[in-house]
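Title: Prediction job returns without error message
Component: structure pipeline
Severity: low
Priority: P3
Assignee: unassigned

Description:
Job completed but the reporter wants confirmation the result is attached to the right record. Sequence as submitted:
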Amino acid sequence: MQNPIDKWHELVESGDAEGLEDVLAEDVVFHSPVVHAPQPGREITKKYLTAAFFVFKQPSFRYIREIRGERDAMLEFQVEIEHVLVNGVDLIKWNDEGRIVDFKVMIRPLKAVNLIHQLMARALGSD
C-alpha cells in the first residue's frame, strides 16, 4: 500500500483532483482556515481540495518542511499569490487503510488568509 502522503504529493504535483477519491476516506473531515465548523464527508472535502488545487497551482508553490508519523503528517508549504507570500501547514491523519480521515489547513499571515479566503470563495463559486 502506498503511503497516503506520497500519494498526496503526486496529486498536488499533477493537479489531479480526480485522484482525491482514492485517497480520502468516506468519513474524512476537512478543517478550513476560514470556515468556522469542520466540514465532514468525502464530497465536501474533495470540493475544497479541488478548489485549493486551482488556487495554489502557482510556479512558486512548494512544501518546505515535512514531519511524518505512523498515521499523521505535517506538511509546511509556501507560495506567492498576487504578490502575497502565503505560508501554511497541512495537518493530515489517515486510517489503517491508508485513506485520509482528517485534513486541517492553517495559513498565515492575516493578509494571506484574507487573500486565500477571497480566491477560494471564487473557486468554489460563492461569495
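Comment from assignee: result matches the submitted record. Helices lie at 4-14, 20-23, 42-56, 110-124.
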